[in-house]
Amino acid sequence: MSARLAANGLFFALWVAVCAAAPEFLWQGLFSLFGHFSLTDAAAAMFIGAILAFFVEPLLERARGSSGHTRKSPAFAACEALSFAFVAVCVHEAITVYVAASHSNEQASANLVTAVSNALQWAAIPFFITLAWLAARGPKWLIWTAAVVALVAGYLTAVAFEWQARVLLTTIIPALAILIAGCLIVREQWDVTTFGRCARATAVIALTWLALTGALQAVLWLANVQAFRIYERSELWSDLRFYIGWVIGLFVAPPVIPETPLPVKRQ
After folding, report:
1. Pairwise CA distance, residues 175 & 119, whole Å
2. How far apart are CA 242 and CA 232, in angstroms?
3. What's the pLDDT score for residue 49?
4. How far from 254 is each of 8, 15, 61, 193, 207, CA to CA, in Å?
């Protein structure tokens, strides 16, 4: 494998991992932002959004050589660009509030450490599983090594951040199924649709897992069983946001396809 392919694979995995961590940051940030959102904040977002929409974004479009804006009326293009720019500014402010101020208005440095640790927790497993998928094109010893590294990385993440055993199990079990499904998909066919199929498999496995465990937990709640829990209410929704980000990352990340597809080495 060339250095170029290795670098592309590494950044592809990083891209997917960041997307997996992003929804929780957006959720927490927007929750923090709207707690003290004012008309002044809205006006500032609209002002900055207007600059982005009417100046920065058209320049970037011209730099990329795109002329798609000529097919839209000025009113429609302006409203569309302004809407997206306004949302982008709000998202930026939400993340800034979450990282710098958090819910308890602690010092920014402490909150930054917390934010980074949360990002590592959310991103670690998708990152190493994506690398394992990329390694699935190689010989069996490489496949097994990458798969074991992914599982060990998940366990070490749980130990480092002091996850409860219940949280570890509800994370590792679906992750193992996603890891296996992705490896089978990659070995079966290697083309521009490969990671789209991996995304669909991840979505099916995640939704199936959350539906089954959520239904079982609901039965336990109705039966007033307190000694055994699969999920807390907040954890179930957090995991849903996590899997949504993971699937989105697999769809939006630039495809990692070598110029000449590598044959599968079988041993």
Report:
1. 17
2. 15
3. 73
4. 9, 9, 19, 12, 25
Q: In this structure, what token pair is assigned to residue 61?
A: 């479009």
Distance CA 16, CA 64 (A): 24
Largest interatomic CA distance in the chain: 65
CB 250 within 8 A of CB 196: yes
Judge whether 243 and 204 are in contact, CB under 8 Å.
no
C-alpha to C-alpha distances, 231 to 90, 98, 164, 167, 206, nearest whole angstrom: 31, 25, 11, 8, 14
d(CA 180, CA 147): 9
| Structure confidence by residue, pLDDT tens digits, 203-261 | 999 999 999 998 888 888 888 877 777 887 778 888 999 999 999 999 988 878 654 44
Give the position of tokens 């130990």.
159
